[in-house]
Amino acid sequence: MRWVLHVDLDQFIAAVEVLRRPELAGLALIVGGRGDPTERAVVSTASYEARAFGVGSGMPLRIAARKAPDAVILPVDAPAYLAASAEVMAAVRAQPGAVVQVLGWDEAFVGVDTDDPEAYARRLQHAVLECTGLHCSVGIGDTLVRAKIATGFGKPRGVFRLTAENWDDVMGERPVIELWGVGPKVSKRLVALGIRTVAELSTAPEDGLVAEFGPRMGLWYRELGQGGGSAVVDDTPWVARGHSRETTYQTDLADRAEIEQAALTLLEQVLDGVAEDGRPVIGLGLKVRYAPFTTKTFTKRIQETVDRDLVIAKARELIARIEPDRPVRLLGMRAEMALPDDAREGRTPTRGAW
Question: Hey, how many other C-beta atoms are within 10 angstroms of the C-beta on 313?
Fold first, then answer.
């Protein structure tokens, strides 16, 4: 039988740091920013010991330090994590019959034909540990969605199977926010429709979902509630849909000209990446975080173009939407690109970046 496995490295970034500094094993470890909790930065990852204090990814570093005052705080070292990720993916690809679809630094889908997926998963875990010193959890499913969700039940260092046979028993009464691809905003909209559990979503009337989310996403959310979707693991190389840059400023930007120039500087960096890819721009995005912590996002579709000056002119229209007289603590710019003709087909709404 063809199975989908989802391989997820346990506390990946923290685990890489422990490999480099074994004396950190068992300690509350936080990785984020430049490792200085007095600066504006967020947590990239936290060890299980730090998570016990309520520290989580995306949390402001100063708050994390307050929650876990004895934690070791380290700066982000992206090159080290990329190198470790490459070793992990090489070990996964070396498994017999494995078709590997990389999702990020620390996770991948694996398609495999086997009569004993649990045994295959255990061998895969052993191979990754042997080659890299890193532990992983493996979810087993008959669709990508079920395999992805199954991994959460296997953490840490475990294996869990989630298929059509046990989907309702395992997921039926759980809140919709526990589904892959359903975040806080979508969850609130579903609850407003009277849909609170996965089981309720799986049987929700299609017309109501379509009216709320549109014909594509409305039907997708219903299918998601059933654990359905694609069962095909696609090893076509990942293709970035866009480039983005963002910066958190240690001192709020208050001058309008300074804010505009900072946004344009980020855009220039983004467009340098776009130029390397050689694909036209089809959309723009601007992220603004006002002091103290209110975030707004603006997007704009544009006519497909490789004209840098035209893209900058269109971006200025977004930048003009930044509210005057409001100090800014973070800016981000993004350019969406047209996908090449040979890009991976069958993208799901939960993976809009491939």
Answer: 11
107 is catalytic: yes
Catalytic one of 17, 107, 200, 336: 107
Helix (H) or strand (E) holding 215: helix 215-225
Q: How many helices (H) and strands (E) does the chain have?
A: 13, 12
Report which residue type is found at 341.
D
Cα–Cα distance measured from residue 200 to residue 221, given in angstroms and rounded to the nearest whole number: 11
Q: DSSP 3-state assignment of 69?
A: coil
The answer to whether the beta carbons of residues 91 and 131 sit under 8 Å apart is: yes
CB-based contacts of 354: which residues, under 8 Å, 6+ apart? Answer: 238, 239, 241, 343, 344, 347
Whole-model pTM: value is: 0.83
> pLDDT per residue over 166-212, tens digit each?
999 999 999 999 999 899 999 999 999 999 999 999 999 999 999 99
* Strand duo 2-9 + 136-141: pairing: antiparallel
The alpha-carbon radius of gyration of the chain (Å, integer) is: 22
Q: Tell me the average pLDDT across 153-165.
A: 97
Angle, CA 205 vertex, CA 204 and CA 208 arms, to 5°? 105
Positive or negative, the CA dihedral 304, 306, 309, 311 is: positive
